[in-house]
Amino acid sequence: MDRTELVERTLDKAADHGAELSAEQTAQVVDALFGTLERPGSIAEVIRSGEAVTVLGFGTFEADDREAVFRPGTALVEYLENGPAPRR
Length: 88
Description:
48% of the residues lie in helices and 17% in strands. The chain has helices spanning 3-16, 23-34, 42-48, 74-82, and strands at residues 53-55, 59-64, 67-72. The protein has a three-stranded antiparallel sheet with strand order 1-2-3. Strand 2 and strand 3 (67-72) form a beta hairpin. Helix 1 (3-16) crosses helix 2 (23-34). It is flat. 3% of the residues are buried.
């Protein structure tokens, strides 16, 4: 999946949750979070400062000897292994 597809999928998911965002607004959020070639995103800036970024259930982004590392969270691991949880 490339950036364009990520923006489109994020836009669709946001709409499913009732958000009214334009494709441009969604792209700006994706760029702010993950960065571009011209500017680092918020995740990269925090990792470079020596802190970790944890998204509960999804995982943790951190640096290990200046190398970016992603450690998946429990919810992501369970989803990948078992599919979506039953709806309540």
